[in-house]
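[Meeting: bench + compute handoff]

Bench side (C.D.) handed over the final construct sequence. Compute side (W.E.) agreed to return the predicted structure before the next meeting so the bench team could plan truncations. Sequence as handed over:
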Amino acid sequence: MPVRLPKLFLLLLGIILVLNLLQAHFTELIFDEAYYWHYAQNMAWGYFDHPPMVALLVKIGSFFFKGELGIRFMSCLLSVATITVLWLMIDDDGKRKYITHFFVLVFSMTLMNAYGFFTLPDTPLLFFTALFLLIYKRFIQEPSYLWGIILGVTMAALMYSKYHAVLVILFVLLSNLRLLTNKFAWFAVGVALLCYIPHFLWLYENDFVSIRYHLFDRPNGAYDFEKYTLGFLINLVAIFGLTFPWIYKAVFKTKSSSLFTKALLYLTYGVLLFFFLSSFNRRVQTQWIIVVSIPMAVLVFQRMLTDTTLRKWIYRTGIATIVIILFLRIGLIYKPFFPVYYETHGNRQWVSELQAEIGDIPVIFENSYRNAPMYAFYSGNPTFSLNTYMYRRNQYSIDDSEEKLQGKKVLYVSKYIKKGDLSFTKVDGAHYKARYIRNFESFRKLEVLVEKKEWALGHEEEHLFKVYNPYDIDIDLKKLKFSIAYLNDYKQVKDVEPLKVHPVSENILSLKPNDTLNFSFMFPKPKIKDPGYFRIGISENKLPLGLNGKNIKLE
């Protein structure tokens, strides 16, 4: 039977769609969106930080519209689709009496509101989480190969959206362990894995760069209750606004009356518990827990249908939250309405001012995968983020942005240049200096490889490492300087020392294309006590030290 949505539902849904489309058109990009726009300029089965779904959304939207709306068009569609799927998950016919209450509940959820027009990996994550739950509900009612295929494809789409999707699948599975003996469930897993093979291959071909970064290479810090655990608890409030006490109360009172309700509860509690425990190790970003909005929206609205007091208070506090949200949304466009500076303010301005001064000269930003794509988007000119030992690797570390600028005159922008050819200040107050490089040449993709498993300081002995040259040219060794960075146990750089290295083979003057060269070295004495890790980096042509080697544990 075809699904017939009430006219009032369609009217409110249409109003939200129009509102989001207008917001998407008139709001300048945030830095993450510019970064994902950069993804979409080179479509692939994976990217440094995320799977490819967000890039696909940008690419599709850009076929229909130019500018900001093109980047956000698909997010606007997915957001109303998410709301529709949430509605379809609720079986109670009494819901038709409370359509406005449903929209107040959903539209007052702060991050779900924001992801109604911003294009971020969480946007498709929310949609495919909702779709996955809807299909799972049908699957447990009527398991079959057909529903197994649909469920498997949806799980793959979830995982193509964001790696956090594994938590959604895991906690739904834990809510119904009988799935482990269900042949149709295993068939669905097989379909999902088959659909995910292209991304697995991309990860393999790129040395599992995304997994290594998220699990092993991210810098951390000593436990700080205010920044970590208290910050997590504040996030629990922030994602729901003024409705938060009533929403959590409704969820806590809900009992698992069916397999589907049990899945919603397991998903909610599982994600919250997972990130609560994570908060004792690192700072939990607000968007990491946004996925709980999907099961909680269903659980809370189902309870609102029978609980008059809950319905009344969520409606009242929801309206108040929506008023605040709409005011802030205007402020995203019109700066005086926003209480503080936000990254949608002034990017077009600083880009146009800099471009007016330098023309079409490509720009290299030191340590900024945020400024580089923002400048490229609003200027239309090539850019590159040159990442140094004090920053982190990102998409610019693995794509062809560097190659496109080799040998060209560029403007090199940094906060740390003492004397440059020009300077500029962004709307947020950040001040930069810049200098021209007449013939830019960098080798950020040189790889330092170590094979030894155990490393220790304090021994007067030579050690070995290799340098792999992935470029198709010879690289003169005179252009390269080596240094060693010492990191603490939280993988934060605390000391950098020059490193004297010697090619193991004599009379070697260059690194051959697609070849490796062995070097010997001795550890220089670090200025910090008991470093936890070291990393060898390369500076080429007097550029800042790069991120060429992995963090190696010191015993």
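W.E. noted at the follow-up: The first strand starts at residue 363 and ends at 366. C.D. will use this when planning the next construct.
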